[in-house]
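During the reporting period the student researcher (J.K.) took over the structure-prediction task from the postdoctoral fellow and processed the backlog of single-chain submissions. One of the processed entries is reproduced below for the supervisory committee.
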Amino acid sequence: MAQATPQEMIQTVELVYAQSLLELAQDAGVLDDVAAQMVQIAELSEREPGLIRLISTRTISVDQRAKIIEHMLKGKVHDLLYRFLQVVNRKNRLEHLQGIAAALAHLVDEANGIVRVDAYVTSLLDEAHAEQLAERIGGIIDGKVVLRQEVQPDLIGGVKMRIGDRLIDGSVAAQLRALERRIGETGRASARDQAKTLIGD
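J.K. obtained the following structure tokens:
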């Protein structure tokens, strides 16, 4: 069974809450701060899964959970985000916190024209070639690319890149094959080897 992409795993309720937070933060001019703090909260919840279970459990009251959130976050995150999390608590949706954070990050990327690209490589591209590859892909798909490399030493042929929520298709692969010809004469041999780790023969 194919692994679900982050976008596919985001539920409708999470998108609704994330969209509301996005609009509130945009109107207040604090989107960057709020988005960064949501990432930190999501990372904390991943490191401390018991924490989410504690604040989302229905075995304690909404008021008790509100006091926990106040103790943990009031004055430590932007007040808009703090109030938003208290609303999420009152709606008994705190179990969706990580999904809301993921949905918000996705919406912020869309608003900024950013496309996340996962490149599966046999060995890491150096910084210069990774930047060149990201720029070229961005030109093809008309977006600002943030490239994340994942090393798979046993990678052999086939599809080796995920762009947004879809695996690379043949038409894009054909264009990417041409990238190593355009990267430049100086690094041609190196670019060819690195491109072959990304594109099927």
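The committee noted the following: The two ends are 25 Å apart (CA to CA).
J.K. will present the remaining backlog at the next meeting.
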